[in-house]
TrEMBL record:
<feature type="modified residue" description="N6-(pyridoxal phosphate)lysine">
    <location>
        <position position="97"/>
    </location>
</feature>
<dbReference type="Pfam" id="PF02784">
    <property type="entry name" value="Orn_Arg_deC_N"/>
</dbReference>
<keyword id="KW-0210">Decarboxylase</keyword>
<dbReference type="InterPro" id="IPR022653">
    <property type="entry name" value="De-COase2_pyr-phos_BS"/>
</dbReference>
<dbReference type="GO" id="GO:0006527">
    <property type="term" value="P:L-arginine catabolic process"/>
</dbReference>
<dbReference type="InterPro" id="IPR002985">
    <property type="entry name" value="Arg_decrbxlase"/>
</dbReference>
<comment type="similarity">
    <text>Belongs to the Orn/Lys/Arg decarboxylase class-II family. SpeA subfamily.</text>
</comment>
<dbReference type="InterPro" id="IPR022644">
    <property type="entry name" value="De-COase2_N"/>
</dbReference>
<feature type="active site" description="Proton donor">
    <location>
        <position position="494"/>
    </location>
</feature>
<dbReference type="InterPro" id="IPR040634">
    <property type="entry name" value="Arg_decarb_HB"/>
</dbReference>
<feature type="domain" description="Arginine decarboxylase C-terminal helical">
    <location>
        <begin position="572"/>
        <end position="625"/>
    </location>
</feature>
<protein>
    <recommendedName>
        <fullName>Arginine decarboxylase</fullName>
        <ecNumber>4.1.1.19</ecNumber>
    </recommendedName>
</protein>
<feature type="domain" description="Orn/DAP/Arg decarboxylase 2 N-terminal">
    <location>
        <begin position="76"/>
        <end position="339"/>
    </location>
</feature>
<keyword id="KW-0460">Magnesium</keyword>
<dbReference type="Pfam" id="PF17810">
    <property type="entry name" value="Arg_decarb_HB"/>
</dbReference>
<keyword id="KW-0456">Lyase</keyword>
<feature type="domain" description="Arginine decarboxylase helical bundle">
    <location>
        <begin position="365"/>
        <end position="433"/>
    </location>
</feature>
Length: 626
């Protein structure tokens, strides 16, 4: 190839994908391997999986990316300790709710073993998962969330196994439960308390931060709790103070302020006699989804290294001032640890193009507005671009109005619509070579193509639907070829909400994604990046589209990969049983219907066989397009 242009910068891939992703000369997105090994091409992975019968859509998890984030967080704390002369240690815990998948948790625990990495459980099922995982004896098991007696009993009993299970008291009532259960069992628990910080943070969870948070104890309740604990002889069990700001905190100033306030509580509680040794700052460490490095909903204005330095510095300063030993720092960073490790891959099934290369044959008797419409072509290229756009839209709308009033027929309307699409292709071509601003930008925005993706937004990207989460989205192939189309993606549910129409590009958010023309004999795959946090179990069965395939791979550093784990997509029979249908009963009922039709002579025996086979095949098949 004489010249090898790369179009990946268009998508900002070099910015948000830094350290993880690249593009090779063939225009394919590649995954960086550990220790500077050879990168692995993502389209090659897709092809190899497809040969094994694992087709898109699927979630691809990369072990190495998971390890990398966890180690980066731990190393950042170690460096911050060194540079600030901090005397305490860091004990991270993984909040199970962020990604509960067994494969993820067990891999994290394995990598985290030498780091004394622990777990955070926010519910009874999560506690049961946490108790089943092999962990370092020095690691923590932090229990947050509302807890009933059986939760508290199990957590307290685990102290007998030498586990550092900390029950974080979230309300005054909860202490009564802890008191009762541990007295019954004769076991001293490790206790924590969740304090409600008054500082509010910016970002998506602003409204539920500060004193509007539904979690934790305010100043008055804290004082009451300490008195009660003292009276009951439990104050010596209170070793940890917890606070949590909410997820994806975009501004480092908020993190610093919150850490400083947490220290104030820590110092005061210690002065009241609580033997606190652990300061738990919860989650909130954000992911820079857009790579813009600014305090915005989908970005953050800090690196993990800055986060750690800021937190450690703040704590060291406050503790030194109060002449207290440096506590063990705990964070419950979930999103940062798992977000990068998963990529959702779907194939494009087809497109509705909002333009046409074919010019309609206008006829002499056609309405003059149709002739006016077609004449717009003559002045698109000049500096009358905006005027041409206004005119085209006006004539088209007038022609539609004529049709509604019965003044033109369907064939003439068809020529008008076709003529407009022809002009759209001319507008788009012209717009590619000039800077379009103002009204024209918005008008052209309504000419974007629909690409149909083989996925369900509700199942696989729930936060895109629910909270307008932005993920980097990129065609995985042909990035050495200019993407000549602008598209939004529609999923295969029958819900008009099932679409992706916000994207991250090099120059910020965009209402359309640059894509290539589809080729008849070539699959076109799209990657949605950084979907490892919160997406997997939040998804739902809208239109009964089930779980997609999940494949975990490791990179071999030779350009290849190994499959570490595979979970097959839900079959239709499985999905039906989730909503309480028995697939066998359904098959029986269908059989009877066909049998009656046979008896009535509506179908013959061959057709009967075909119908039953088709039903059975579909039951055993997947919910997405094959
Ligand atoms: C959800 C949650 C976390 C995880 O927060 P991230 O922002 O994903 O790191 C940590 N702690 C508590 C108490 C939570 O509720």
């Amino acid at each position: 190839m004489a010249e090898n242009r790369q179009f990946s910068p268009l998508y900002g891939l070099d910015r948000w994908g830094a350290g993880l992703l690249d593009v090779n000369d063939a225009g394919e997105v590649t995954l960086r391997a550990p220790n500077d090994g050879l990168p692995t091409s993502l389209p090659k992975v897709i092809e190899a999986l497809s040969e094994r019968g694992i087709a898109a859509p699927f979630l691809l998890r990369i072990h190495h990316f998971l390890d990398q984030a966890l180690l980066q967080l731990h190393n950042a704390f170690q460096s911050a300790f060194q540079s600030t002369g901090y005397q305490g240690v860091y004990r991270g815990v993984f909040p199970i709710k962020v990604n509960q998948q067994a494969e993820v948790i067990s891999h994290l625990m394995q990598t985290g073993l030498p780091l004394h990495y622990g777990l955070e459980a926010g519910s009874k099922p999560e506690l049961l998962i946490a108790l089943s995982q092999p962990r370092s004896p020095e690691s923590l098991l932090i229990c947050n969330g509302s807890k009933d007696e059986s939760f508290v009993r199990l957590a307290t009993l685990s102290r007998k196994l030498g586990q550092n299970t900390v029950i974080v008291i979230e309300s005054l009532d909860e202490f009564d439960v802890v008191h009762k259960v541990s007295t019954e069992l004769g076991i001293r628990p490790l206790l924590g308390v969740r304090v409600k910080l008054t500082e509010r943070v910016t970002g998506k969870w602003q409204e539920s931060s500060g004193d509007r948070s539904t979690f934790g104890l305010g100043a008055h309740e804290l004082v009451t709790l300490i008195d009660r604990m003292k009276a009951a002889g439990f104050l010596d069990c209170l070793v940890l103070q917890h606070s949590h700001l909410g997820s994806q905190v975009p501004d480092i100033i908020d993190i610093r302020r919150a850490a400083a306030e947490a220290c104030r509580f820590f110092v005061e509680l210690t002065a009241m006699g609580a033997p606190l040794t652990h300061l738990d700052l919860g989650g909130g460490l954000g992911v820079d989804y857009t790579g813009e490095r600014r305090s915005d909903e989908n970005s953050v204005n800090y690196t993990v290294e800055e986060y750690c330095t800021n937190v450690v510095e703040t704590i060291r300063y406050a503790m030194d001032e109060a002449a207290l030993p440096h506590p063990t720092i705990v964070t419950e960073s979930g999103r940062f640890v798992v977000a990068h490790s998963s990529i959702f891959v779907f194939n494009v099934l087809g497109a509705t193009l909002y333009d046409s290369a074919t010019k309609p044959d206008t006829q002499e008797g056609d309405n003059h507005l149709l002739h006016d419409l077609m004449a717009v072509e003559n002045y698109i290229d000049s500096n009358r671009f905006q005027e041409a756009l206004n005119d085209a839209l006006y004539y088209r709308d007038e022609l539609r109005a004529l049709f509604r009033r019965g003044q033109i027929g369907l064939a003439e309307l068809a020529r008008a619509e076709q003529g407009f699409l022809y002009l759209a292709s001319r507008f788009k071509a012209t717009a590619r070579s000039r800077d379009v601003t103002g009204d024209a930008q918005a008008q052209l925005g309504s000419f974007v193509d629909y690409y149909y993706g083989n996925f369900s937004l509700f199942q696989s990207l729930p936060d895109v639907w629910a909270i307008d989460q932005l993920h980097p989205i990129v065609p995985l192939q042909r990035l050495n070829e200019e993407p000549t189309r602008q598209a939004i993606f529609s999923d295969i549910t029958c819900d008009s909400d099932g679409k992706i129409d916000k994207f991250i590009l090099a120059d910020g958010a965009s209402d359309a994604l640059p894509v290539h023309d589809l080729k008849a004999d070539e699959p076109y795959h799209i990657g949605v990046f950084f979907v490892g946090a919160y997406q997997e179990t939040l998804g739902d069965l809208h239109n009964l589209f089930g779980d997609a395939n999940v494949v975990t791979i490791s990179l071999d550093g030779q350009g290849g990969f190994n499959i570490e784990h595979e979970t097959e997509a839900d079959t239709i029979a499985e999905v039906m049983s989730y909503v309480e249908y028995d697939p066998r009963d359904c098959l029986d009922a269908f059989r009877k219907t066909v049998e009656r039709a046979l008896a009535a002579g509506q179908v013959n025996t061959a057709e009967r066989r075909m119908m039953i086979a088709a039903y059975k095949d579909a039951l055993a098949g997947h919910t997405y397009f094959d």
